Amino acid sequence: MPERLRCAVIGAGGIGLEHLNSLSQCPRGTAVAICENHAGRAKEACDRFKIPRSYTDYRELLEQADIDAVTIALPNYLHAPVAIEALRARKHVLLEKPMALNAKEASKIIDTAAKMRRTIMVGQNFRFNRQTQMAKMFIQRGDVGELYHARCFWWRRNGIPRIGSWFTQRKFAGGGATVDIGSHMIDLALHLFGDFEVVSVSGHTHSRFGQRGVGEFNWGRSEIDPAKPFDVDDYGVALLKLKSGRSLSFEVSWAACQPPDAREYGVDLMGTLGGISLFPARLFRNGPNGYETTQLSAVKVPHPEDRVHHFVNCVLDGKKPMVPIEESLRVQQVLDAIYTSASTGKEVRLNSA
Ligand SMILES: NC(=O)c1ccc[n+]([C@@H]2O[C@H](COP(=O)([O-])OP(=O)(O)OC[C@H]3O[C@@H](n4cnc5c(N)ncnc54)[C@H](O)[C@@H]3O)[C@@H](O)[C@H]2O)c1
User: Fold this and answer.
1) What pLDDT shows up at residue 298?
2) Domain range holding 98?
3) What is the CATH number of the domain that holds 201?
4) Run of H or E residues at 299
């Protein structure tokens, strides 16, 4: 293994540029190539980050022996096929969320990574947020006692990615708000619980704004085709129950008529001795002076790097990532279950992980 990990970024859209920016500041990693099939975005990324090589076909990039790892920032339907080919080509893989279109694809990624003995990690950036890490430290220290319930939410009022892009077509995205922003919040809440043993999911979805062309926000750099139908959800809600007896309520919207003064996204955790809330990280307790709210602060957090730097360090040091891939599979199973429950009207039982 070289001293600095030689990385390539596949997909130089909105998030691919963030990966490149992170790699440009990475002490132990560097971007040596990109793959992007849109000529303008490829040139922009190479010029901005001084990347020497650019490919339009990811298979050609994967043949290059001087690339150790790839980060995948492609539309969701390409996550599993490209990750699997990259692992087979002996590259380590950092994959954007959601892990795949469904749990079957996600399991194939895991099997390939195990067979090829490569590092695979889903870039759940909220886990690397300083506020999250402080909350996790206080939970692990026992400040809130035993956690029994949490609610996680992301209420966008006007936040549908560009309508007509891959984001709003089910065959390319796998789903709408539930997979896009819901994958962040479910992962974050279960991570803070320290418990991914979800055993049942009851969910529902709506598609109320995008179909009318209302509620769009300017995210995503890929081309749009206004003629393509908006066939994903712009609202999702679910109740999850865990083997431990814990429960989690979940609610996300890409667009909704909601009060503008509420927090946009976060997790509120309830424990027997206190509660913890994100964002920002606050602790609530009944103290000697009544009900107290404390802003959490900590000098040090366990993982002060961002997700890309963390991935690079894990590969070079042979360490297990802070986002274990089995947990990402569980999140994918929960997302699948929300849609199954929504379409059947029934609670979905999940097998033990
Ligand atoms: N972690 C986060 O907070 C976060 C935020 C936004 C998006 N994402 C995820 O990142 C991924 C990409 O999202 P985005 O917002 O960057 O989308 P985007 O549409 O802006 O970018 C996707 C890029 O991939 C390129 N592309 C498509 N097919 C290709 C192929 N076969 N070969 C090479 N390039 C190809 C497109 O030309 C485009 O430039 C998605 O999975 C999304 O869910 C994560």
Assistant:
1) 85
2) 5-126+305-323
3) 3.30.360.10
4) none
